[in-house]
Write a structure and sequence with these properties.
The chain is α/β, with parallel strands linked by helices. It is built from 23 helices and 13 strands. Helix 19 (about 485-495) links the parallel strand 10 (about 470-475) and strand 11 (about 500-505).
Length: about 600
């Protein structure tokens, strides 16, 4: 037996004992039938099985998670007391003492309502702006998303040049913080302004830059900044851990967006010049060269390129001007006009779906209600989420100001609700990260899926090259990634020579992942799982699913194939398990697979 897959055979007799975390009781007869008839696999250490059985018996339910993203049952008196201390105001951003450096990243690629740029504009000795295509971010991106990122950075470069005559220093590098630190020394910068987004890669880069600055005897000050929807609610207090405790903040109107600086002055560089300056953006060859500097990132990029699929509903361009155009169209004419601009006519039978998710979306939109049949706020969120939440071509405050003044009142009101949810989950993510170490052997992190924040747990230490294939655990309905934390610890300690790294994510709509107004289907969840594996796990893995997560694991495995999915573990999985004969009979009776029926 392949040693990489031997643990799967060892787990098989025990998987049904896990019990669905979202079930109130065990299925009758399962444990008795599964506890016999399976001989242990030769060569498998009993620590795997002992650790798995012990840890899974204590898997926490959602109600036992330390913090709930849902509204708990509280007495009115407790809720009122919590509302008084639920949020903290955003602190004022310090002014630069000499030369200021603005490090742009995905999430703030704009000049309007940019607190970092506005504060840097007050620097006595001028402002420099930079953007670095970091290898670890490049390796995560699909071809479409890489195209969007390049377009947004190029638009930012053009705006800085046309508005202020200011250059955007651009390069591709293995380490963004090292390049920023190098630039700061070249120009004697005193202050660096950088957007603090809860995304894993951004948090790691920010911490690395802060560490470099501390080694410079405090000569370089790093200022993380946010653009909260309300300046009076810049973060959650330690007492605020549920939406009810935050809700009172919504009683105040969102903060008006900051205007772009009237002017920006470049520093006089008479005695020092930046060691790197690229007129324009790095070409594809330069980006590939950066990936070659790290074998792990090179393998990750190759893995992503080996799996090709099309979203079908994503945008093909990104810029501040394009985001503002779409926002203006929505506020003036409503969701129907925006949907037709982005997706075409709702009942356009000539439009061929490029993915199962798009097919399901168009099936709803092609109904009697057209785009009105979608979830309220869905059109706005689908069209603008990547440009607004991932790239930051416009801020939440800019969008909120336009929506409050919009002529399409009902649609604008629904879109505002979506923005409020975006802001709540951003604050919740930052609060989660501020809690420190919650689980042994696992860290809580966040990544953005199509702009939406999704929480996940990952090994505290990067798995070694010779470690066992990672396991990607997928939770069941109304559960979350934290139910797998005890299992992650048990697997990490079970074999000190070859530990098993475990990753688990909150699927979109569950746990501390965002709950966007999307018509969620199994295809949306499947895409979320596939993107997480390719972007974050970044290696061939074993998929393990509980309940509806088992269905997602099977769906993703069928698409990814054995080169990416090294095995499948089903824990009380949803959906029937059919023999090949029964499967063929079902196919014939239903007219083929979903993909085949889409092409008819």
């Amino acid at each position: 037996m392949n040693p990489d897959l031997s643990m799967l055979a060892a787990l098989r007799p025990h998987v049904s004992r896990l019990g669905r975390a979202d079930d109130s009781k065990q299925r009758p007869g399962v444990q008795a039938s599964d506890s016999a008839g399976h001989a242990p696999v030769r060569g498998i250490r009993p620590t795997y099985l002992k650790a798995l059985a012990a840890s899974c018996a204590t898997l926490p339910t959602l109600s036992r998670c330390r913090r709930s993203a849902h509204r708990p049952r509280r007495s009115l008196r407790m809720a009122r007391r919590a509302q008084n201390s639920g949020v903290l105001p955003e602190p004022e951003l310090p002014r630069p003492s000499e030369t200021a450096l603005v490090w742009f990243r995905s999430g703030d690629l704009r000049v309007e309502d940019h607190p970092g740029l506005a504060r840097a504009a007050t620097a006595p000795k001028g402002v420099l702006c930079c953007y670095i295509f970091e290898a670890k971010e490049i390796a995560r991106l699909s071809a479409r998303r890489m195209k969007l990122l390049r377009a947004a950075v190029e638009d930012l470069r053009q705006q800085l040049k046309s508005r202020y005559g200011l250059l955007l220093h651009v390069c591709a590098a293995r380490s963004g913080p090292e390049k920023v630190y190098e630039l700061s020394k070249d120009v004697n910068a005193s202050d660096v302004y950088v957007h603090e987004d809860p995304v894993d890669l951004h948090m790691e880069s920010l911490q690395e830059l802060q560490s470099l600055s501390r080694g410079n005897q405090g000569q370089l000050r790093v200022h993380p900044w946010h653009a909260p929807l309300r300046l009076g609610a810049g973060s959650l207090s330690s007492e605020c851990r549920c939406y009810d405790e935050y809700a009172s903040a919504r009683e105040t109107s969102p903060t008006e967006p900051w205007q772009a600086p009237a002017e920006l002055e470049a520093p006089a560089l008479e005695h020092s010049q930046p060691s790197w300056l690229l007129e324009g953006l790095p070409d594809d060859a330069s980006l590939r060269e950066v990936l070659r500097s790290d074998e792990r990132m090179q393998n990750q990029a190759a893995l992503r390129e080996s799996v090709s699929y099309v979203l079908g509903l994503g945008g093909e361009s990104a810029s501040e001007a394009e985001a503002l155009r779409l926002l203006s169209l929505f506020t003036a004419q409503g969701a129907e006009a925006l949907a037709q601009d982005a997706f075409g006519a709702a009942r356009d039978r000539e439009e061929v779906a490029k993915s199962k998710e798009e097919w399901a979306f168009r099936r709803v939109a092609g109904g009697p209600d057209g785009y009105r049949g979608l979830i309220p706020g869905e059109v706005f969120s689908r069209v603008l989420s990547e440009m607004m939440l991932w790239l930051g071509c416009i801020s939440l405050r800019t969008a909120a100001a336009a929506l409050r003044a919009g002529a399409a009142e009902e649609d604008c009101r629904e879109a505002l609700e979506a923005l409020e949810a975006n802001e709540w989950h951003r604050l919740l993510a930052l609060a989660d990260l501020s809690d420190g170490k919650l689980f042994e052997h696992s860290d809580v992190r966040f990544f953005r899926w199509r702009g939406y924040l999704c929480r996940y747990i990952a090994p505290s230490c990067l798995p070694a090259a010779d470690s066992a294939p990672p396991v990607l655990a997928i939770h069941g309905f109304a559960a979350s990634c934290t139910q797998f934390a005890p299992l992650a610890a048990a697997l990490a300690e079970g074999d000190t020579e070859r530990p098993i790294p475990l990753y688990a994510l909150d699927m979109i709509g569950f746990g501390h992942a965002e709950k966007p107004p999307l018509s969620i289907t199994q295809y949306v969840w499947e895409q979320c799982v596939k993107d997480f594996l390719l972007s974050v796990v970044a290696a061939p893995a074993v998929l393990m699913g509980n309940s509806i997560g088992g269905y997602m694991a099977q769906s993703a495995a069928a698409f990814l194939g054995p080169s990416v999915c090294r095995g499948l573990i089903l824990l009380n999985s949803a959906g029937p398990l059919l023999s090949m004969e029964d499967y063929q009979t079902l196919l014939r009776s239903s007219g083929g697979t979903v993909l085949e029926r889409m092409r008819e």
